[in-house]
Amino acid sequence: MDNARREWALNAVLALALFAVPAWAWVANEPFIITLATRVAILAIAAVGLNIALGLGGLVSFGHALYLGIGGYVAGIAAQHAFNGTPVLGLPGTNQMLPIWAIAMLVSGAVAAVVGALSLRTSGIFFIMITLAFAQMGFFFALSWPAYGGEDGLPIFMRNHFPGLNTNRPWDLFVIAYGVLMVALVLFALLRAARFGAALMAIRQNPDRAAAIGISPFGIRLTAFILSGMLTGLAGAMMADLTRFVSPAMMAWTMSGELIVIIILGGVGRLFGPVAGAAILVGFEVFFGGLTEHWKLWLGLVLLAVVLFARGGLVGLVAGRARHG
Amino acid sequence: MTALLQLEDLNVFYGASQALDGVSLQVAEGQAVALMGRNGMGKTTTISTACRMLPLRKGRVVFAGQDISGWPSYRAARLGIGLVPEGRRCFPNLTVLENLVAAARPGYWDLQQVHRVFPRLHERAGQYAASLSGGEQQMLAIGRALMTNPRLLILDEATEGLAPVIRREIWAAIAQLRTDGLSILLVDKTLSEILPFADACVILDRGRVVWQGRPDGLTAEVQQAHLGV
C-alpha cells in the first residue's frame, strides 16, 4: 500500500513538473524549453500507446515507429493537399488537427490490425522480428515515394490548426499535447483497471490458463495491439506538427527502439513510466547532447544500469519492484 | 434428467502413449459427480479434455446439447465450463482483484457474490496472488472459476496439500454451491470428503472407466480393486 501511495505521489510530481516547467518558460519567455516539454509530452503519448502492448500485454513490438510514421504522414499529406488545394483520394486535404488525428488513428489502427493479425500468430523473438519487418517495409516504402518527398521528407509549411488556440505559439501547442497526454493516461488507467486490462495481463502470464477461464488470447491481444498502434499513430501526427516535417526517419527501426527505451527507463507497465522515460530521454539529449556528441553512449550506460539494477525503471525505483519483473 | 456434460468414447494420446481409452461419462444438470482413481489413471486428462485443452483422437465432448469437440478452450469456458485446475494456478503477478476481474462474465456471480462466499478474497483484494497462502489461493481459484458464471464447476484436487481446517472450509463452500444447484464434476482421492455429497462416482483405471455407480455401491471390494485402499 505504501508503494502504491508513493507511486501516486511520483505521478503527481511528474504531471505537475511537466506542466510547471514550460509554464515557467512561458513567463520567462524561453520558447525552446516549451518546445522541449511538448516533445516530451508527444513522445510520452507514443510510449503510452506502446505501453498497452508491451507493458500490459508483454508484446514486445519492435516496429511501433511504423505507426508514428503513419500518423506523421497523414498529417503531412493532409496539410500539403490543403495547402495546394488539391484532393487526395477524392477528398479535400485538411489543415485541422482534429480530423487529422481521427484519420491518423484510423489508418494506424487498420495497419496495426493487419500487422497484429499476422504477427500475433508467433511469439517471442519471432514476434519482435515480424513487427520489425513490417516497420522496415513502411520505412522503405516512404523512402521510395517521390510524391511525398521520398527520402527528403515532407515539410508542413503551415502548422495545422486547433479550434480556439494558435498552434504557432509554442505554449498553445504544448497545452494541446499536455491535454492529449492526460487523456491518454486516463484511458490507459481505465483500460488497465477494466476486465480487458486484467485479461491482457493474465494472458501475458499464462495464455492457456487464461483461455481456460474464457479469455480469447488472440482476440484480446489483437485488440490491445490495435489500440496501441492507434495511440502511437496519434502521437505521430502531433510530432509531425511539432517539427513541421515528416520523413522516413520517423519509421526507422531506431525510432522503434527509442520508444522501447523510453518505457524501460520509465518503468514497464507503469502508468507514468512513459512520461518519466520520455523526460529522461529528452533531458539526456539536451544536457549531455550539449556537452558531447556521444551522449548516446552515456544513455546506453544508464539503460544498462536500469536493466541490471532497477528493472522497474524510474517509477520502480521510487515505488517498489516492477510488477512484471 | 438431461446430461449437461456428456463425454463419449474419449481417446486421447500424449504423443504415442494412450492416456484415455474410450472414456464415457455424464454429469446431469444439478448433479455432483466424483471422478476417482489412483495417480496417473487419466483423471486430469479427462477433465482437461472436457475443457477442450487437449486434442481428441476419437470421441465427442457434448456440453449443454452442443458438440464442442472441435472448440478452443476459451469458447468451452464461455459456454459454461468453469475449471478449478490442479495446483490452483492463479495468475501470480496479478492482484487477487485482477485475478477475479479477468475472468468476469455477466451473470449471477460477480465480485460481491464471490466475496460473500470467500470473505478473505475481499480482505486480500490488493495483494498479489503469489503472496497468498495455499488455502487462499485455492479460494481464489474457485472464485475465479465462479466469476465466469459456469453451469458446471470442475474441481481438480481442490483440497490437496491443505491444512485440515482449511480443507473443511473449502468443502463447506463447495457443498453450499452444490446445494444452490450448481453442477459439479470433481476429482479427488479422499473418499470421506467426497462421498457425503456426490450423486455418482466414476472410477478410472489406466485410461478406462472400470466402475461407475452410486457412492453407496463403493464397497470395500470395489475400493480394494480399483483405488488401492
Describe it for me?
The complex is a heterodimer of chains A (325) and B (229). Chain A is an all-alpha fold and 325 residues long. Helix content of chain A is 73%, strand content 2%. Chain A has a two-stranded antiparallel sheet. Chain A has a two-stranded antiparallel sheet with strand order 3-4. Chain A is globular, with a radius of gyration of 19 Å. With 229 residues, chain B is an alpha/beta fold. Chain B folds into two domains: 133 residues, P-loop containing nucleotide triphosphate hydrolases (Rossmann fold, 3-Layer(aba) Sandwich), CATH 3.40.50; 68 residues, no CATH class. In chain B, β7, α7 and β8 form a beta-alpha-beta unit. The two termini of chain B are 32 Å apart. Chains A and B meet through α7 and α8 of A and α2, α3 and α6 of B.
Distance between the termini of chain B: 32 Å
Radius of gyration of chain A: 19 Å
Helix content of chain B: 25-40%
Provide the CATH top-level class of the largest domain in chain B.
Alpha Beta
Main beta sheet of chain B: 6 strands, mixed
User: Low-confidence spans of chain B: pLDDT under 50, at least 5 residues?
Assistant: none
Strand order of the largest sheet of chain B: 6-7-8-3-9-10
Order of helices and strands of chain B: EEEHEEHEHHHHEHEHEEH
- The value of Rg of chain B in angstroms is 17 Å
> In what order do the strands lie side by side in the largest sheet of chain A?
1-2
* CATH homologous superfamily designation of the largest domain in chain B: P-loop containing nucleotide triphosphate hydrolases
Q: Into how many domains do the coordinates of chain B divide?
A: 2
CATH class of chain A: Mainly Alpha
Task: Report the sheet-strand fraction of chain A.
Answer: under 5%
Could you tell me the CATH topology label of chain A: ABC transporter involved in vitamin B12 uptake, BtuC
Largest interface: A-B, 23 and 28 residues
Principal-axis shape of chain B equals globular
Mean pLDDT across every amino acid position of chain A = 93
The low-pLDDT segments of chain A are none
